């Protein structure tokens, strides 16, 4: 991690958030990086002792339980605060995994708080205590771009149980999880209406559920989940029957803004590393920083990162003001992930051969950021969301209305 001159990027953060940002930077530099430097290149976590050590410090700093309701011992914070923390905590070799692995102690999926008190006690609280881990399964082989209509996994009520049949694909954090929230079609709906989707809490030892690892270009593998007459108790229905899609949509929108912020944090670290390299790398007739081609790559990267960051800050501020941010979240996710990919690509180019060497984190970030353009909804889906909203709400301007 590099030391950089602080810039406000045209968005005036409150003093307390400026102080928080500096605290997180120092935590990542002084506590996380020394531990990370001892890990194997493609590690996706540290030792239990190191996790306990880091979690203790993070708790003292108020960085844990950020999406957990206060009544359950959480420390809920504003969307803008989460964005600042997500951006800074991603500036490490394992930055792309920070949200999935629970960088500062983890917690259950937000959707669990919409469950009954018994469900929260059985599944939510143990996650806060670090005793359980969970996954969320929405995507299927038919695609995840239109989950409401693409979900073909069936849930049929039989007595006091639901029987699930189907397959889920590309499910993150399924390995070793203690439970998961699985979305299934419980009713096809009336003609002309969308199908009804219901959320179920499923445990890995339920009969009829199997997990198959899927190797991908990063170290953390997703899983295929096969459900064959998997019986789920009625008390494991999460929320109301038929209203699971609304639950899923709320969870996805909430996650997309800090998701984009994390990608921006990785890219900013890559750009700062490239600048440090350009400032010291000798070339014929001077230093690498003197070459116009290098300067243009740095300039383009800085401009795009500033724009992406402002989009994220703006969306988070709107969320904190109680505005609907579905489209803003799509804008952030689309531009933030695609910008991050371009910036890391340029940083590798500036470093040359060293950029793809495994002693540097750049080639790992390059692979992992490629997945970010697919996860949380692929870029093309977010373009559709943005375009449809624009077309629906624009009459045609001054000259064509």
Q: What can you tell me about this protein's structure?
A:
By secondary structure, the chain is an alpha+beta fold. Among the domains are: 134-238, Beta Barrel (Butyryl-CoA Dehydrogenase, subunit A, domain 2), CATH 2.40.110.10; 246-392, Butyryl-CoA Dehydrogenase, subunit A, domain 3 (Up-down Bundle), CATH 1.20.140. Helices cover 46% and strands 14% of the residues. The chain has 11 helices and 10 strands. The protein has helices spanning 15-36, 48-61, 79-89, 98-101, 117-128, 147-150, 244-280, 292-320, 326-351, 362-372, 379-392, and strands spanning 134-137, 154-158, 161-171, 179-187, 196-202, 209-213, 223-233, 237-238, 282-283, 286-287. The protein has a 4-stranded mixed sheet with strand order 1-4-5-8, with helices on one face. A hairpin with a 2-residue loop joins strand 9 (282-283) and strand 10. Helix 7 packs parallel to helix 9 (326-351). The longest helix has 37 residues, at 244-280. Residues 99-103 have low confidence and may be disordered.
Helix-strand topology string? HHHHHEHEEEEEEEHEEHHHH
CATH H-level name of the domain at 246-392... which superfamily? Answer: Butyryl-CoA Dehydrogenase, subunit A, domain 3
Overall pLDDT confidence: 90
Structural class designation = alpha+beta
H/I helix tally: 11
The neighbouring-strand order within the major sheet is 1-4-5-8
Low-confidence stretches: 99-103
In percent, how helical is the residue content?
40-55%
Biggest sheet features: 4 strands, mixed
- Fill in the CATH topology of the domain at 246-392: Butyryl-CoA Dehydrogenase, subunit A, domain 3
CATH class of the domain at 246-392, anyone? Mainly Alpha
Beta strands, count: 10
First and last CA, distance: 52 Å
Strand content: 5-15%
CATH architecture of the domain at 246-392: Up-down Bundle
Shape: globular
Radius of gyration: 22 Å
């Amino acid at each position: 991690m590099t030391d950089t001159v602080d810039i406000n990027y045209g968005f005036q953060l409150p003093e307390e958030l400026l102080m928080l940002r500096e605290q997180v930077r120092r935590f990542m530099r002084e506590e996380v990086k020394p531990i990370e430097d001892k890990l194997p290149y493609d590690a996706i976590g540290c030792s239990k002792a190191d996790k306990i050590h880091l979690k203790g410090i993070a708790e003292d700093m108020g960085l844990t339980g950020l999406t957990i309701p206060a009544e359950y011992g959480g420390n809920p914070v504003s969307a803008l605060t989460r964005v600042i923390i997500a951006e800074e905590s991603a500036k490490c070799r394992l930055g792309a995994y920070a949200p999935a692995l629970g960088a500062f102690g983890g917690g259950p999926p937000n959707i669990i708080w919409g469950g009954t008190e018994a469900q929260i006690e059985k599944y939510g609280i143990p996650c806060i205590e670090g005793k359980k881990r969970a996954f969320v399964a929405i995507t299927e082989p038919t695609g995840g771009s239109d989950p409401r209509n693409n979900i073909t996994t069936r849930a049929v009520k039989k007595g006091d149980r639901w029987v699930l049949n189907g397959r889920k694909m590309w499910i993150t954090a399924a390995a070793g999880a203690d439970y998961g929230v699985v979305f299934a079609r419980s009713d096809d709906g009336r003609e002309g209406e969308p199908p009804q989707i219901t959320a179920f809490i499923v445990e890995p030892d339920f009969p009829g559920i199997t997990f198959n690892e899927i190797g991908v270009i990063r170290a953390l593998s997703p899983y295929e989940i096969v459900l064959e007459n998997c019986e789920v108790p009625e008390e494991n229905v999460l929320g109301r029957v038929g209203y699971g899609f609304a639950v899923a949509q709320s969870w996805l929108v909430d996650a997309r803004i800090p998701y984009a912020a994390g990608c921006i944090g990785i890219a900013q670290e890559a750009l700062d590393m490239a600048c440090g390299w350009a400032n010291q790398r000798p070339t014929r007739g001077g230093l690498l920083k003197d070459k116009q081609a290098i300067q243009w790559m740095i300039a383009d990267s800085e401009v795009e990162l500033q724009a992406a960051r402002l989009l994220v800050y703006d969306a988070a501020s709107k969320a904190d003001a109680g505005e609907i941010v579905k489209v803003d979240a799509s804008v952030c996710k689309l531009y933030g992930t695609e910008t991050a990919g371009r910036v890391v690509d340029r940083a590798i180019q500036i470093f040359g051969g060293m950029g793809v060497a495994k002693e540097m984190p750049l080639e790992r970030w390059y692979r992992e950021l490629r997945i970010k353009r697919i996860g949380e909804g692929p870029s093309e889906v977010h373009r559709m969301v943005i375009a449809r909203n624009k077309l629906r709400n624009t009459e045609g301007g001054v000259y064509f209305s």
